[in-house]
Structures are given as structure tokens and as C-alpha cells.
Design goal:
single chain; two-stranded antiparallel sheet; 37 helices
């Protein structure tokens, strides 16, 4: 029977309720009709929420994402509508997404909010299907396939004009979203949180947003808020925030732990620093975790490590993370990860691992946010959060941790360049060595100190930090005594290093006394012919000479040379180093011809044994050129130094200290050759290099400032020279101390330019005061040039009697130290004879210039700066 229905008046909804087969069809009036393109809207109220948005954490710290998401623009100026929040587990990605979702909901920026826990593809599909069921006309239909409902929901998102936000929380793998990404439409916005940062998560109008740690201020504010009701526990809150490296998850769990146990932040930090405690012991039990945490800090990253270890090359991510766990969290150079030692650690049974495999493994960890590769750093450093390292070490057996530590030490040693051309790299390697010491020091004493610790201390000294190097070796000496004994060769070497670098700070007395004691102990324990004993003996002789004991310097070096030739052979690098020291010292007691002949023979042997590009060979060439200038050929010195400079730039690099020293010596001999203004310009440029490469307090930088002031005076501005030198003296007193030889030279130079500016009497008085300090610090034998210049300025001030008295004293010292026939002794004897013929003394000494009074840039052979154990690791 045919049924006909009719309707009059006004009706909102009309339902056909008789003879119905199939579904029930709802028809809407014009006042409640969805757009024609959408046939899924139910007659229920809008806006709608699907899924459960996590509750805001207690004492949540605002880190608003609105500005980041609103301003995101892709290629071609198109808006980015899908954002992926990526970061290490525990940085608060879910909390940020939840805060953003609630903000959008509260401010009515969306009509539909869908929150889906995206731990698997099935969970994502189910979440989409639930969202469709919430808004579809067939909400109660049970015959629909879940996958089909999910597809229809995505189709609806693409067509609707209603504003929507889809949040996919904790996506474990980009593959789970294949073909399930919400569409890119102006009406919608998608937010994904994940520990991954694969390339598949970005592109296609999707943007990866890195979520980092709390800032220090946020971390401190969070802890203060958490402890507001327990203010007595807040002592040391800032330090604890730093210890936990501002990780939100760790801060929350630590706060709960210390409140439960009534510990202050300082007390918790003390427990945390105790290496015997594992990270799992410093967080609440699972039942006491705050803010609905599902895992402790220690367990947070375990799944990420498992996933990374399954990525190709499979099985390398976990051992690589173990290797990284004992190094510096702030940056591990890529070169360390590809050393033979590191590759041997990563190698699996009978399977060789190469550098490409190692770097692929780094990126496996990077994709899971377990490490961060910093491509902008000079050395493509790899960073690891300190707590990830702690959790990784906690899972390693003691024997395994010891193995990883020894391998890491070997890798650092192998990665350390013989010549540190890059100061930044040296600093990073030292930081990694320091980190290794702190986390695994007990595992690195296998009958001797691992050689990387000697290398790190030497690096400090070679890069211009002698005080830090001396302190370093003094600190190394203490555990060496405890673990190896006071007479172990490495213990003695640590003492010798400390004394050597203490001398580099200007404490010559401590250097001589310390080296003499070490030399005595080494001779007794190791024997007088042991290489370590001979090395200490070399150092002792040189520091004695610098301290003023020049009388026996050449003889002592000659005796050392005999012993080194007998023990090590004529071609050993140490033997050649002794020959170099002897040749450069012969200017004290022998003629320049003897010195030059010895240096030329040394150069031939170093060329043969070490090669033309060895640093010591280049140093010998530089010394030969320098002494050519001292012999009266400044133009020849410049030519020779320029030839050395070309090779040093090629071999050592533009910023190497030896290279910069050669640049300074070229400027020096240009000025001495009659071009003081050219020298002034060159020194200005050189000072800029030193400031950039070494910093304002480096000793070489201070030398450059000194020489710049000298050439300013030589260019006709003695007042400017005095002003610059007085400013430099203030800095030298702070950096190097009042008794450092260069501080004393600084005072000498001020006196010199005061005399040149028209105050010879003032210059003589200043030099008289300086003479007292030089005698106290350097000894009487090291003050002959000071006496010579006192005589000069006394003569120029008209005090001929004082000049004669000073020259008489000088002559007595020269006869005793240099001998009666030395050229300098003869010169003083002639000066004295003329000065006694009054009144010609004044006129005669006016014509004789004062002795050179500025520290030059010349640097001795690199061997003379090396002082470390000769044994291999």
C-alpha cells in the first residue's frame, strides 16, 4: 500500500518513521543544514572533543607554542599546517601539545578537537574511527569496518569547513602514519609528538619543531613551585637544576623523591653525584611517580634505544651509545667516533665496521633524539644528554664500563692531532678527557696512567695556559701516588710536568727546584740513562739557564748530548733537540760563527731524519733566519723567515703559534732593517690574529702588544709607547704576576721609552729599581744587559761617575760569566776605557743605543715544550 506524508506549518527536523527499511535518514531545515559538501555532521551540538587530553602537569611551566605554530611558513610562502614536535623523551612534548590543544579549545579556535595516543597504526586508525563515530549519522552502526571509518573521517576532514585540530601523541615511527596523515586544508591543523626526527616527518607542508630542555630560569622556577609547601627543602635548587641538566621529567621525579624523603635539593644533588648510586635509585617507586608518569627517568629511553638498535646498520646504535656515555655530553667530535679504537668497539663478531657504518649508527641515535648531531659546529659534534649517559652507564656491567672507558681513552688519543692547528678542537678534546676522567677514572689505571691524560695536560700548556697545565699535573700527581705509588714512572712524570709548566708561568725558582728533585728521584728509581731521566735533565738545564745560571749552561748541554748520543743514538729526536738547545745557547759563551755552524749541521740532520716538513725542522730554519738578523743582516732574516712562513702555513696552518711567531719575527726584522712604520702596521695585523686565535690574556698576545708599543715608539711616538706599555703592565701583573720575566721586561721597556722621551735620569732610576727585582728573581748573572743600559742612561743624564761605576760592575760580572775574551766583555772594557776619559763618556755612550728590550716572537723547538712519558699506551 502506498503511503503519503504531508507537513504544514514550521518544523525543524522531519523523520520518516513508518515502513522503514535500512537506516534512518535525517533531514535538516535550512537553519540547521551543514554545507552541501559534508554529509557526516550529526544534529548534536558543536564544538566537539574526541579522546582524552592529558591533564596539565603540576606546576606546569608555560612554554607557549602559539607563536611558533602561527608564524610557520613553508616554501613559496605557503602556511605550514602540520607540525611535528620532536625531542628527547622527558622534555615535555605531550604537555606542550596538550597545553596548545586546551588553549585552542578554550579560546574557541576549533570546532573539533581530536586527541589520539598514536603508539601504533592500529591505535591511530581506531582513533580516527572513533572520531567519525562521534560526528557521523551512523554513530551506532556496528557493521562498519574500522579502517573504512577512518578513511571516511579523513575524507570529511578534507572537505569540511569546520575548524579542526588533530593531535597524534607519541608517534613511535613515521611508518605508522603512512597514508594516514590528516589532510592539509585551511580549516585544519595537525600536531604530532614523537621522539623521532626522521626526514619523513618533515616536508609536504609539514614542519619539524625541536622541543628542548627547560631554560635554567624555567627549571629553577619549576622546582620552587614544586617545593612551595616545603620551602625548607629548596636549598641548592639552582645547583640541582644544573645537575639534572634542566630535563623536565627528571626535575619532576627528583622533586617527588626528595619530598617523600625530606631531602634538600643539595642533599639530593650529593646522592646524585655518588657514582655508587644508580639513576633508578634516585626516583620514586612506580606507584609514586608524579603527573601520571608511566616510566621512571631510567626507563624512559629504553624503548628508544631498542628501536635505534634495529635500524640499519642493525646492532650498532646500542654499543655506540655506550661509547658515547663516557665522554662529554656537550660535544664529542666526529673524528673520535671513527678512530680505529672506536670502530673496534663497534665491530660485531667477524664483521668489520667502517667509518660510514659508525656515522650511520650516530644518525640512528639522532633519529630517536638520543643524540643530537650539530652540523654547525666546527667538528660536527655529537651531543648526548647527561642523564641519557647516566642511564646507559647504569645498565653496563663494571667490566663492560671499564672496557668502554679504555676504548674511549684510546680513541681520544688517536684523534688528538700531533700539531694542534685548531684551538677549538683541542678544547673539545680536553673537555672529553675531563668527562672521561670523572665518570670512569677508576677504570683507567692499568699499571700506569693512560697517556691521554698526559696529552690533555700538554695541550693546556701548548695553547697558552701554563698555569692551568701546572695545576692539572699537580692534580694528576695526587691519584698517581695513591694508585701507582710515589716512585712509579708516571707519578714522577706528572711531577716533572707540573714543575715545567710552573716555570712557564714565570715561577723559575719552582721550576728549577721541582725538576731537580724529579731528576734525582728518576735517576735513583729508573737509572741515570733512562729516557725519562734524560728528558728531565734537559728541562732542568734549560730552566737553570732561564733563571740566570748561564755559566754552566753550555757545558751541561754538551754533557747531556754525549749521554743522549750514547743511549739513544745520534739521530734520535731527543738527541737532535739537545743539539738545538746547545746551538741556540752558544751565543752566550761562543761566537756567532760557532752557533751558526752548529745550527746548519742540525738542519741537515733534521731534514734527513725528520723530513723537511717536520715542526722541529721548520723551527731550526726559523732560528737560523733569526740569528742571521742578529748577525747584522735583517734583510736576509726577513727573506729566510718568509720562506719558512710559506711552509709553516702549509704544514701547521695559518693560526698555529709557530706560524704567528714567524709573522712577528718578520715584522721585527723589517723594523730593525729600517722600516719601523712597516713593522708597526704588521704588528697591528698580527695582534688582531692573536686576539682572535688565542684571546686577550694569552702570553703570545701580550708579547704582540709589547712589540706593537715598541714600534710605536720607534715610529716617533714615545709617549704613545709609554702609555701602551703602562696599560700592558697592568694586565701582565694580573695575568702573569710581578716576577714573570716578561713583566720585568715590560718595566724595562717603560724605562727605555721614558729615557727616549727626554727623561734619561728617570729611566736610570727605574732601571735601578728593576735591577733589584731582576737579581732577586733571575739571579745576578741574568742582569748584565740591565747594568749596561743603566750606564747608558746615566751617561745621557750627565752622570759620568755613575756610568763608570756601573760599567766597572758590569765588566766584573762579564769576566766571571762569559770570560775575559768574550766579544761582549771586550765591548764593555772599551766603553769603560773611553768613559774614564772625561768628559767623552757622555758623548760616547749617547751614540751607543741601549740593548734590545722587548720579548721577541721567536719560539724554540717544539721538543723543548714536550715533557711527557715516553711509554706508549
Amino acid at each position: 500500500m502506498e503511503t503519503q506524508n504531508s507537513l504544514s506549518g514550521t518544523a525543524r527536523d522531519v523523520v520518516q518513521a513508518r515502513d522503514v527499511s535500512g537506516g534512518i535518514h535525517l533531514h535538516y531545515s535550512a537553519t540547521n543544514r551543514c554545507p552541501a559538501s559534508s554529509q557526516m555532521s550529526s544534529p548534536g551540538a558543536w564544538p566537539r572533543r574526541v579522546g582524552v587530553v592529558p591533564l596539565r602537569a603540576d606546576c606546569y611551566q608555560e612554554r607557549d607554542l602559539s607563536a611558533v605554530l602561527a608564524d610557520a611558513v613553508g616554501a613559496g610562502g605557503t602556511a605550514i599546517l602540520t607540525h611535528v614536535l620532536s625531542g628527547l623523551g622527558g622534555v615535555g612534548k605531550t604537555q606542550l601539545a596538550a597545553a596548545y590543544a586546551e588553549q585552542c579549545w578554550t579560546h574557541k579556535k576549533v570546532d573539533l578537537l581530536v586527541w589520539i595516543s598514536a603508539e601504533s597504526r592500529e591505535a591511530i586508525v581506531s582513533g580516527y574511527a572513533a572520531a567519525r563515530a562521534e560526528i557521523a549519522e551512523t554513530a551506532n552502526a556496528v557493521d562498519r569496518a574500522v579502517e573504512q571509518d577512518a578513511r571516511r573521517f579523513l575524507a570529511w576532514l578534507a572537505e569540511t569547513s569546520r575548524r579542526w585540530l588533530i593531535v597524534l601523541d607519541d608517534l613511535p615511527d613515521p611508518v605508522e602514519l603512512r597514508d594516514l596523515w590528516p589532510p592539509q586544508t585551511p580549516a585544519g591543523r595537525t600536531l604530532v609528538t614523537t621522539r623521532r626526527r626522521d626526514a619523513a616527518l618533515s616536508g609536504h607542508r609539514r614542519q619539524l619543531v625541536e622541543v628542548g630542555l627547560f631554560t635554567p630560569a624555567e627549571a629553577v622556577a619549576y622546582l620552587h613551585a614544586k617545593l612551595a609547601d616545603h620551602s625548607h627543602l629548596a636549598e641548592g635548587v639552582r645547583e640541582l637544576a644544573g645537575v639534572l641538566d634542566h630535563l623536565p621529567l627528571a626535575l619532576a621525579q627528583a622533586a617527588a623523591y626528595l619530598v617523600d624523603r625530606n631531602l634538600t635539593c643539595s642533599e639530593y644533588g650529593h646522592r646524585f653525584s655518588n657514582r655508587r648510586r644508580q639513576l633508578a635509585d634516585l626516583v620514586p617507586e612506580p606507584s609514586g611517580l608524579p603527573d601520571d608518569h608511566r616510566a621512571t627517568v631510567a626507563a624512559t629511553w629504553s624503548l628508544s634505544v631498542e628501536v635505534a638498535d634495529q635500524l640499519a646498520p642493525a646492532g650498532l646504535a646500542r654499543p655506540l651509545l655506550e661509547f658515547l656515555a663516557v665522554l662529554d655530553p656537550n660535544g664529542i667530535p666526529a673524528t673520535v667516533l671513527t678512530t680505529p679504537a672506536a670502530l673496534s668497539y663497534l665491530a660485531k663478531a667477524n664483521v668489520e665496521v667502517d667509518a660510514e657504518d659508525a656515522w650511520d649508527a650516530v644518525h640512528c641515535l639522532h633519529r630517536l633524539n638520543l643524540v643530537t648531531v650539530d652540523p654547525a659546529s666546527a667538528h660536527r659534534s655529537v651531543r648526548v644528554h647527561a642523564l641519557v649517559q647516566r642511564a646507559t652507564r647504569d645498565q653496563m656491567r663494571a667490566s663492560h664500563l671499564a672496557w668502554a672507558a679504555r676504548v674511549a681513552a684510546d680513541a681520544l688519543q688517536q684523534a688528538w692531532p700531533i700539531i694542534e692547528r685548531d684551538g677549538v678542537l683541542g678544547q673539545v678534546l680536553r673537555a672529553n678527557t675531563d668527562a672521561l676522567w670523572h665518570v670512569a677514572e677508576t677504570h683507567l689505571w692499568q699499571r700506569q696512567v693512560h697517556q691521554v691524560f698526559f696529552r690533555a695536560g700538554k695541550s693546556l700548556g701548548d695553547t697558552g695556559l701554563p698555569a692551568a697545565a701546572a695545576d692539572y699535573f699537580e692534580q694528576l700527581h695526587t691519584p698517581a701516588v695513591e694508585r701507582l705509588g710515589p716512585e712509579h714512572p708516571d707519578t714522577l712524570t706528572a711531577r716533572g710536568n707540573a714543575a715545567h709548566w710552573r716555570g712557564e708561568t714565570g715561577d723559575l725558582v719552582a721550576a728549577v727546584a721541582g725538576l731537580e728533585q724529579v731528576m734525582s728521584d728518576q735517576a735513583r728509581v729508573l737509572g741515570p740513562d733512562h729516557p725519562d731521566t734524560l728528558t728531565t735533565r734537559h728541562r732542568f738545564i734549560l730552566w737553570q739557564g732561564m733563571a740566570g745560571n748561564t755559566a754552566g749552561l753550555v757545558h751541561a748541554l754538551e754533557q747531556l748530548l754525549v749521554d743522549r748520543m750514547r743511549v739513544l743514538g745520534a739521530d734520535h729526536p731527543d738527541t737532535l733537540a739537545t743539539r738545538s738547545s746547545l746551538a741556540n745557547s752558544q751565543s752566550i759563551t761562543r761566537s756567532s760563527d760557532d752557533r751558526d755552524a752548529a745550527l746548519n749541521r742540525l738542519l741537515a740532520d733534521r731534514m734527513r731524519v725528520l723530513g723537511p716538513d717536520h715542526r722541529d725542522t721548520l723551527a731550526t730554519r726559523s732560528n737560523i733566519a733569526f740569528w742571521r738578523g742578529e748577525a747584522g743582516d735583517p734583510a736576509g732574516a726577513v727573506r729566510g723567515l718568509e720562506e719558512v712562513l710559506t711552509d709553516q702555513m702549509r704544514v701547521l696552518g695559518h693560526d698555529n703559534r709557530d706560524t704567528l711567531a714567524t709573522l712577528g719575527n718578520i715584522a721585527h726584522w723589517r723594523g730593525r732593517g729600517g722600516d719601523p712604520k712597516g713593522a708597526l702596521i704588521a704588528e697591528k695585523e698580527l695582534l688582531e690574529h692573536y686576539l682572535r686565535v688565542l684571546g686577550p690574556e694569552h702570553p703570545d698576545t701580550l708579547v704582540a702588544r709589547n712589540n706593537l708599543a715598541h714600534w710605536r715608539g720607534e715610529s716617533g711616538d714615545p709617549a704613545g709607547a709609554i702609555s701602551a706599555l703602562e696599560e700592558l703592565l697592568v694586565d701582565r701583573l694580573c695575568v702573569q704576576g710581578p716576577d714573570h720575566p716578561h713583566t720585568l721586561s715590560n718595566r724595562y721597556n717603560i724605562a727605555h721609552w721614558r729615557g727616549e722621551s727626554g727623561d734619561p735620569a728617570g729611566a736610570a732610576n727605574m732601571l735601578g729599581e728593576l735591577l733589584v727585582d731582576r737579581q732577586r728573581v733571575l739571579g745576578t748573572d741574568h742582569t748584565m744587559s740591565t747594568r749596561q743600559d743603566i750606564a747608558h742612561w746615566l751617561a745621557r743624564s750627565g752622570d759620568s761617575v755613575g756610568a763608570v761605576t756601573t760599567l766597572e760592575q758590569l765588566l766584573m760580572e762579564q769576566v766571571r760569566v762569559l770570560g775575559p775574551t768574550h766579544p761582549k766583555t771586550e765591548t764593555t772594557r772599551q766603553d769603560l776605557a773611553r768613559c774614564r776619559q772625561q768628559p767623552r763618556c757622555s758623548e760616547y755612550l749617547k751614540r751607543r743605543p741601549p740593548t734590545s728590550a722587548w720579548p721577541r716572537h721567536v719560539r724554540p723547538d717544539s721538543q723543548q715544550h714536550d715533557f711527557q712519558s715516553r711509554r706508549t699506551p
